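Feature request, filed as a ticket because there's no other form

It would be nice if the structure record came with a short human-readable summary line next to the tokens. Right now we just get the raw output. Example of a typical job, pasted below so the devs can see what we mean:
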Amino acid sequence: MRRCVPLSLALLSFPLLPAEKLTDQQRIELIRGLTAEYATVKAPLPRSKKALEFPSEGAYDKKAWEAAGRLLGPAARVGDLVQVTKVDIDSDKLVLAINGGFNDGKPKWRDRIQIGMNGQTAPISKGQSNAPGGTSIALLFHGPVPAVKAAEIKKMLAPVLDFEKRTVTETFMESLPPEIQQAVKEKRAVEGMDRDQVLLALGRPVRKVREVKDGLELEDWIYGTPPGKIVFVTFNGNKVIKVKETYAGLGTQAAPIDPPR
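Raw output as currently delivered:
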């Protein structure tokens, strides 16, 4: 005589196959594909000591986010541009730090450290780290993080963050003054640029030289090698104060080139 096994018991007797897990290479690619990316805020983004929970299926607890906003204020408002500054992959979730993550505004131990020379000292930190702002989002999977790509994560976060409007470089370019944008397009450095803008316009220098002149700590970024055009971009701190172009002919003795730093 045959015995019939209920379907529910039959299903329980066979373990469910686990979702494909992230490999080490996939983890690296996922972090690389999300870190430093910009997004436009589509829903109020509150500051929160604890990462804001966002289920991967998209239906998040708006009331919990609103409560966090009433407690600590906004990290970003609708239409603001934010940046993913760090990505952590836990067993069942991805945690994305937005604009540096939560900061309570209290001084950190490193802010009290100073370095100096010739009797003068200056703090290592410039103070930006003390400015309150930023938050974190925890993308929950309710199980092991599956083998997903950065583009899929961006689609999951679409109800609150829009990653599709601009690339990182486009966003950075659009934030620059018109004269700086024009100089970058023409691949030239101009006074008033900062280091990031010079890198965008000219790339990495062949050589860097530091010196103290008239009490100022200067750094020259040197582009080009003889024979041909040589460009000297001089920084005081983070700002370009002088750009000099010269031409080194065939008979010019080239100085030894230091490796880029």
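Something like this underneath would help us a lot:
The chain has two domains: 8-165, 176-248.
The first helix runs from residue 7 to 12.
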